[in-house]
Each structure stands twice: as C-alpha cells, then as structure tokens.
Amino acid sequence: MAEHYDILGVSRQATEAEIKKAYRKLAREFHPDANPGDAEAEARFKEIANAYEVLGDSERRARYDRFGDDGLGGSGGQQGNPFGAGGLGDIFETFFGGGNPFGGPSGPSGPPRGEDLETALNIDLRDAVFGGEQMVNVRTAIACDPCEATGAEPGSGTSRCGECGGSGQVQRVRQSILGQMVSASQCPTCSGRGETIDHVCKVCKGEGRKIETVSYTVDVPAGVDSGSTLRLTGRGAVGPRGGATGDLYVHINVEEDENFLRDGHDLLLRQPIGFAQAALGAELLIETLEDPETLLVPAGTHSGRRFRLRGHGVPMINGRGRGDLLVELVVATPSDLTDEQDALLRQFAELRGEEVAPADPGFFSKVKSAFK
Ligand SMILES: [Zn+2]
Ligand SMILES: [Zn+2]
Questions:
Q1: Right CATH number for 260-370 from 3.40.50.970, 3.30.200.20, 1.10.10.10, 2.60.260.20?
Q2: Residues less than 5 Å from ion ligand 2, measured at CB
Q3: pLDDT digits (tens, 9 = 90+) for 71-112
Q4: 3-state SS assignment for residue 97
Q5: Burial per residue of 36-45, b for 16 or more beta-carbon CB atoms within 10 angstroms, e otherwise
C-alpha cells in the first residue's frame, strides 16, 4: 500500500502547513466534481482524503509514524508494553477485546464489515504500458436476495436479544494479575444490534449473504509493474446482515515479453543487424510497442552498441513523461553463405590482410580433431 506521505507527495518531515497545502491542491485536482465520471480520479480523491485524515491530525499522525496503519485502528495493533504509560484505560481495552485501542468509545455497533479480498491479475507488457480495463473473477460474498441481506425469513419479525437485553453490549468480569476487571464488549449473539431474528432466512441461514463468483472490471493505470497492488474500494465481500463491504486488493503480475525486456521505465530490445550493415551503416526499421521507428545506424557500428529511442518506454505512473526504448544492436555473423558470398568474403579478407580458414572442407575435420 502506498504511504500516506507519498499519496500527498510530502516528506515525513513536512510541517502541518505543508501537508495542508499539499492536500488542498490535490483535493481540488482530483475532486469528483472536477472529474465527473472518472473512477480513477475518484479513487485518488478517496486516497488523498484518507491520507489527510491521518496526517492532518497531529495525534493521529504521530501514531501513524510510530505504528503505521496498525496504529490507527481496525486491526487492534499491539502497542508495545500494555503496562506502559497508557494507564488503566488502555489495559482494559487491550486485554478485553476493545479491539481498537485508539478508537472512540466502543458503543453498540452495526453488523461487521465484510472481508477484504485479494486476487492476482496477470497482464502482458502492452497492457502494463498502456493500461486499460481488465476483468478479474473473485469468489466473494454478496447480499442474499430473498431476505434482502437481513438474514430474516421474509415476513419474520425480530425480538429483543436475550443475551444483552437489547443493549447490544455484554459485560464481562475477569480475573487478572491486577485484580477483577469489568469490560463491555459487543454482544456475540446479536452482533451489537440488540435484537435477534425470529426465523432465519432459509437461503443464507441468517447470514444475510451468500458466496458467489463475481466479475469486476479493474482499471489498470498505464505504467504498472509487477508487485503493484490496486485497491478497489467496496469491491470486497459484503458484511453479514447488511454490513459494509470490504475492499478488493488486486496484485498485478506483468508477464515477460519475448521481445522487450523491462528495466524500470525503460525497455530494452536486442536488434540483430547484418555484418555488412553494421560496417557500412544502414537505416533500420525498429519494432516498438507502437508504430515502427526508423533508426539510422552509422557506419562502423560495433555489436552491443545501444541507441535510445526517446519516449518509447513505459509511462511514469501517476505522472508525466515516459521512459525510453533502448535498442542494442547485435551483429549477426552470416553462417549460410552461398558460394558467391563465400568468394567475395575471401576476397574481402585478403584485401584486409586477414588470414581465414581455407576453403578446403577437410580443414574443419582437422580443427575438430584438434579439440578432441
Ligand atoms: Zn445481544
Ligand atoms: Zn437470506
């Protein structure tokens, strides 16, 4: 996941004013009103707002700096020694399932949020360079139709929860090394709703959701690389009984291309060139990911020399500009000479004063035996 600082484009040492300024600028740029119908801009806007929610608040920012996102709740990240400076309140919550040691008061809450899901997406180099829409199939949980995600058989009523008496919370008393402790936590029977269903839905057995494979369209941004992860907010599993939907994380894997080798934002192409072309110079037509480009090879070019075709590489993600295509010339030695070509090359070698193997085919059998 991208760092909140990276999302706002500020350093970890940025002042409050710098963070605020960066946020305002980005928020204006990616605001949904300014980008109607642009899902990518909307996702960016959410990310930006989320980052500012953390970094714009000095206390939350300090926690994030120390513990990362774990420090901000949700996963109940362990914060060092629970007997430390936190005081007794922290001990209660850390030990007794308050869940989020940094969250607000843990009153009755709604149904649990659905699971975050992960999936892998394999794309080829062209799709990574140019971006575009891809499909992923995900096994996920969707709302149950007959009960409209309530988990109750249609027409069935609800009753006050017997376990918590309708408060949605249960008190627990436990013995600990510090003595008897009382804590309140969400009622497990009614999940904090305070009421239970009289007759559960036969289709979902009261879950309010069912497992199904769903196809989603993923907007792959131009320039992604293997190891990138895209988050699709709200595309995870729906929570039980109408709970909020989790997110879907799509891990990108870019398959190797048979012609182009990727090196960050540059692409490398090994281009064979004839021996005479390299010596005399030539105009080559070079395959790129778009239209072919002409490359002027000067006379006397050595094998291995690289030429740069600017702007034919991989686009910078979330930014302007594009890498280059590096063309590495490989001089191909002819191995299929006709008699005429053979004779001409011999003449050429003689003029150059280069000693070559005699035309007598017996020579090669002698060479072979010499290497045995
Ligand atoms: Zn209850
Ligand atoms: Zn149902």
A1: 2.60.260.20
A2: 144, 147, 201, 203-204
A3: 665 433 333 333 333 333 322 222 223 333 333 333 345 678
A4: coil
A5: eeeeebbbbb
